[in-house]
């Protein structure tokens, strides 16, 4: 691990990077230029260092941050709450069971009704393939319309807290952690990262994490290896994109059906379960019509399928295949740990315990990534604002 | 639409109006002198303009705003959350399923127990006729007692977020919107407003909106027309009051059983469904004893009754009866829109779409009305405080 | 009632007391030296007086206070929310039904995951004997580990909001109230306090309040009398501790099976129902294995047992046994009041009504006790900070 940049170095680096996020949404990392991605992780690291030194980076006097969770969540929920609080925004959760956010007319209406004094709307909607991202765009269109027609004084920004396609606050936190771990984004060039499927006794886990990882890491000159059993493919658009991005960034992108192949000589491994794309599509259709019998059958079929690949486990033997036998293990947490949280899972207890603290450090970036997204989407001149915050902190005793 | 007052004009106008709301409750608009009503809408408009210009009107360092919702709500919930946040108060929701606010001994006790550091308590209790307003008074009495006997350092103020009798934050937001739309409260004199029943495929909607509208608009010299099918009457006390107020303010108040008659030449129309007063009374009794069979029968009977008046729909044909065929359409939202949210409802899709943005603008006043009520009930010298806020804003660059 | 200390007197007294709570937990009062206890109640009283005079004691710009409630709660919930808000912290409730805080691996993980920007974690876990305190220690160990290994920038502090052993925010609020009522902690020396069981038509009430009271009041030279029917004993460790502490502080500690004996000549009475220790142990085992039949049987058996002691009621006749027939009646609320909240309960309606306001005043200390615990556990130099707050207040107009 090399020395990481100081707050002042981070500030200067950040000020040298152009961003164009003011009053915009952040839905998919690949919609944003690499320079903007660099700015986000640089800013997140600066805010993290400020917090470590005991300095506030509060930037708002008042204003709401609204969260909409269409799925259970602990760490993303608290990351969003922490970020909103750190920025000076009040948190309000929109509990859809007590409201009317649905489809058509009502999404348009509700999006405006909750936004009169709102700065940021964080949305998690990852259950139905083809829906989460579409829903976020629909909310965004309603906000744009409401702002243009004078209903809203300022257009709130949507932050994707996980959709069916991408999980940007996770992948950006992962990138910030890799930047910290390897000393710089430049140092990531040529690093081999294995994003691999892993066995889990549950099914139906979203695709957004592996898609988010290959969609982001392929932009930084890394050797990205996607590995999964046959039939466990990701959305093909994202796979194609990863290939193109890797080529452009001077990196590599390969897909294999062998966990061993992906692990061989890897600097970083990210073994994680997910459901096959085709299964998620069938599941989505069944959920829509509440086909309970079909869902039961599908679960049975999927668990049986998963069981054929129970050897896709991140064990010591697998880790020994990696570079110097000590690749960095990553996970978005919680992991399915063999003999701890389940009988057989994604990772052996021994390997997980060895890397437990690093996975916590990985997770520690998420509230600061979300803070950085709020900072960039809501402040007109984020460079000047950050300088003001750093100066105030330094005047105190940094 | 005429030019609306500037922030400075609003500030001066506000300072010229006397209010007596410090540490008091706001339950029914007609309990408050017209001058106070003028002050509220003037202040709300000023706060809205400050927000539009990007200036905070935060007035508290700390303090709690507690909400008690005994019914689902999206827009009032978020309006209250937004107002609390904008004023600098922390929001805490009292979820009665996790507590003991009930009747008798316990209301008295709980009212004190939640109020040690509380500034404002917002209550929605609109389901049972004869109960919501009574409950709010009971809470208020407990707070007064607790303050007089030294338990509470300061008496929190109750803001009625909808009861069985009135919906003051709605009607005041509506008044603020009319003031904006027509240029001034003075310009409302002589304007014809049709508060009419409209068909809905649901039943049991509260009476507080129509009651709130006739109870408030009749004080500003308007020609208020209440229209509903036979048997769909409102609480007679409020109807009587509207008549008296209209006479006093130089306006008019009429009740008719014809939607057409009410719409004829109207400048403003407010078509909205509600349940007949007598039905709500029977429903309240049945709800109290959990008479499920009776409730099912009542619903059937009521829907059948409603269906006889399905022609009470705000269509293009109806709108053509209004002044210049273009009365301002108002609704508290969400509306039952024919072919959009239901097969047949309160308003045709075409008419609603034409006025959709104006209804959003109407709704946009609610968080600022609630902010204004917090401002007036919690600050000892609201005129001086507002001047200080406006000066600070202008020093920055207003 | 003697004159209570002024803010300045309190400040000076507070500054003369040593505390060692910075970044530590507060789980059991008896783990903390008497000097620290004095500091807490002195500080709580100062903060209460500041609030009364209208002065903020906000000490944080941002930061989270997380609450974990494993049981329903109104007053502790609002006390914690009020304290967090008053200190400038944002409140986030961890709803375990939407998360994964469980046992083993996951407690360790979740404790870290929610704590990246967190200052305080308030936990109520009082249902299972042998579990609540253990759980809090487990969370605390995880936080210490996470901080030492660089995951957390600062170790959050846990505040026990009621466990199976102690209810420190209640007993400290009670102590602060007694200090106020009798003029000083010194004046408590020799005062006779009867902590007695009382009849209730419900069963399974936790032991933490009586244990908390005897575990705290025995340290201030009081004559502490614990009274309960045979078979309704408390955890023996706490009973032993109370005896030792009483001896050391120059007070007395006696256990009796007669309510009359305990009330005779008492200056303070605290009649409250609880379940026998042995019953709670059996209940815990049954709850763990979801033995519904067993639980039903146990309830029946316990209610029958309770019924044998229905005469353990705090009536006028009982009060007449106390010093000058006017001991101070205390209760943590809500009380089971005969003919009010139940047919026959802990206290007669007449006695409760006489002391209703004093019980509210007792409760009023809780938010300030929790504020004081946040102040002492999170601020490095609480004496200097309090002086700064008092000076600012006095400069304004105290």
Automatic annotation (TrEMBL), chains A, B, C:
<dbReference type="InterPro" id="IPR006131">
    <property type="entry name" value="Asp_carbamoyltransf_Asp/Orn-bd"/>
</dbReference>
<dbReference type="InterPro" id="IPR006132">
    <property type="entry name" value="Asp/Orn_carbamoyltranf_P-bd"/>
</dbReference>
<keyword id="KW-0808">Transferase</keyword>
<dbReference type="InterPro" id="IPR036901">
    <property type="entry name" value="Asp/Orn_carbamoylTrfase_sf"/>
</dbReference>
<dbReference type="InterPro" id="IPR017702">
    <property type="entry name" value="Carbamoyltransferase_YgeW"/>
</dbReference>
<dbReference type="GO" id="GO:0019240">
    <property type="term" value="P:citrulline biosynthetic process"/>
</dbReference>
<dbReference type="Pfam" id="PF02729">
    <property type="entry name" value="OTCace_N"/>
</dbReference>
<feature type="domain" description="Aspartate/ornithine carbamoyltransferase Asp/Orn-binding">
    <location>
        <begin position="213"/>
        <end position="376"/>
    </location>
</feature>
<dbReference type="GO" id="GO:0016597">
    <property type="term" value="F:amino acid binding"/>
</dbReference>
<dbReference type="InterPro" id="IPR006130">
    <property type="entry name" value="Asp/Orn_carbamoylTrfase"/>
</dbReference>
<feature type="domain" description="Aspartate/ornithine carbamoyltransferase carbamoyl-P binding">
    <location>
        <begin position="24"/>
        <end position="179"/>
    </location>
</feature>
<dbReference type="Pfam" id="PF00185">
    <property type="entry name" value="OTCace"/>
</dbReference>
<dbReference type="GO" id="GO:0042450">
    <property type="term" value="P:L-arginine biosynthetic process via ornithine"/>
</dbReference>
<protein>
    <recommendedName>
        <fullName>Knotted carbamoyltransferase YgeW</fullName>
    </recommendedName>
</protein>
<dbReference type="GO" id="GO:0004585">
    <property type="term" value="F:ornithine carbamoyltransferase activity"/>
</dbReference>
<comment type="similarity">
    <text>Belongs to the aspartate/ornithine carbamoyltransferase superfamily.</text>
</comment>
């Amino acid at each position: 691990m090399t020395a990481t940049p100081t707050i002042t170095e981070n500030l200067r680096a950040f000020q040298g990077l152009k961003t164009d996020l003011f009053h915009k949404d952040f839905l998919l990392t690949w919609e944003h230029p690499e320079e903007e991605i660099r700015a986000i992780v640089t800013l997140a690291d600066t805010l993290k260092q400020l917090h470590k030194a005991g300095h506030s980076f509060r930037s708002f006097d008042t204003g709401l941050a609204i969260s909409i969770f269409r799925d259970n969540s602990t760490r993303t929920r608290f990351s969003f709450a922490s970020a909103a609080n750190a920025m000076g925004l009040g948190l309000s959760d929109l509990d859809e069971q007590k409201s009317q956010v649905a489809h058509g007319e009502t999404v348009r209406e509700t999006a405006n009704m909750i936004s009169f004094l709102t700065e940021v709307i964080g949305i998690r909607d990852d259950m139905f393939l083809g829906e989460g991202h579409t829903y976020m765009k629909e909310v965004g269109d309603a906000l744009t319309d409401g702002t243009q027609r004078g209903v809203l004084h300022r257009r709130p920004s949507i932050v994707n807290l996980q959709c069916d396609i991408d999980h940007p606050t996770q992948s950006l936190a992962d990138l910030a952690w890799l930047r910290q771990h390897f000393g710089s984004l430049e140092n990531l060039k040529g690093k081999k990262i294995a994003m691999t499927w892993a066995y889990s006794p549950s099914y139906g886990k979203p695709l957004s994490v592996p898609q988010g990882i290959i969609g982001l890491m392929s932009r930084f000159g890394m050797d990205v290896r996607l590995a999964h059993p046959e039939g466990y493919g990701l959305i093909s658009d994202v796979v194609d994109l990863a290939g193109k991005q890797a080529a452009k960034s001077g990196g590599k992108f390969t897909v294999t059906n062998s966990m061993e192949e992906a692990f061989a000589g890897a600097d970083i491994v990210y073994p994680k379960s997910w459901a096959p794309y085709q299964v998620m599509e069938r599941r989505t259709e069944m959920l829509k019509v509440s086909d309970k019998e079909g869902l039961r059958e599908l679960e049975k079929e999927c668990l049986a399928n998963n069981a054929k690949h129970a050897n896709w486990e991140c064990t010591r033997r697998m880790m020994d295949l990696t570079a110097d036998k000590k690749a960095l293990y990553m996970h978005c947490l919680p992991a399915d740990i063999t003999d701890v949280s389940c009988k057989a899972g994604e990772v052996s207890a021994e390997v997980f315990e060895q890397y437990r603290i690093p996975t916590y450090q990985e997770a520690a970036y998420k509230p600061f990534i979300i803070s950085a997204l709020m900072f960039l989407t809501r402040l007109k001149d984020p460079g000047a604002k950050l300088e003001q915050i750093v100066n105030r902190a330094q005047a105190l005793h940094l």
